[in-house]
């Protein structure tokens, strides 16, 4: 026959074993949940890095395109500037070489007039050209910045 102390000891051993089993099961359960959460966070972080990289590539492409467009505009404006200077020089030459437009004037008056007109045209062309270059530079900068960082 089994005595009461043996029964109590047996129940105690079973209770301790059950508690230990429950403890191990609970620990494994929490570790599994923690591992799942860590995996989820790691995947989210990887997606964020991929998104940031894609955005960086998109912004770099946008900046490169804007720089190319700005360089093309600079070349175009330089060509227009050269055409303007050529036209002004041609006009200056026409005024200097065509005294028939002011035939009534004396030779000295014509020479003075031609010199004055040439000086004024030269000064005006230089100032207008400088102002145009500065304005075009500002426009190019604004366009490049707008293309790099659109609204």
How much of the residues is beta strand, in percent? under 5%
Instruction: List the domain count as a whole number.
Output: 1
Q: What summary fits the major beta sheet?
A: none
End-to-end distance: 90 Å
Number of helices: 2
Instruction: Please compute the radius of gyration using only Cα atoms.
Output: 44 Å
Given as residue ranges, the uncertain stretches (5+ residues, pLDDT < 50) are none
> Can you give the mean pLDDT?
80
Overall geometry comes to: rod-shaped
Order of helices and strands: HH
| Main structural class | mainly alpha
Q: Could you estimate the helical fraction of the residues in percent?
A: over 70%
- Tally of strands: 0
Describe, in short, the structure shown.
The chain has two helices and no strands. The chain has 151 residues and is mostly helical.
């Amino acid at each position: 026959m089994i005595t009461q102390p043996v029964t109590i000891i047996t129940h105690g051993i079973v209770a301790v074993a059950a508690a230990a089993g429950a403890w191990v099961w609970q620990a494994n359960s929490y570790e599994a949940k923690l591992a799942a959460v860590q995996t989820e966070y790691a995947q989210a972080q990887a997606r964020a890095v991929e998104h940031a990289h894609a955005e960086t590539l998109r912004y770099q492409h946008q900046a490169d395109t804007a720089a190319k467009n700005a360089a093309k505009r600079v070349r175009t404006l330089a060509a227009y500037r050269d055409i303007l200077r050529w036209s002004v020089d041609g006009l200056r030459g026409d005024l200097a070489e065509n005294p028939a437009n002011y035939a009534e004037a004396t030779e000295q008056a014509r020479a003075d007039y031609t010199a004055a007109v040439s000086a004024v045209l030269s000064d005006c062309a230089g100032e207008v050209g400088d102002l145009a270059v500065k304005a075009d530079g500002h426009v190019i900068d604004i366009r490049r910045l707008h293309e790099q960082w659109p609204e």
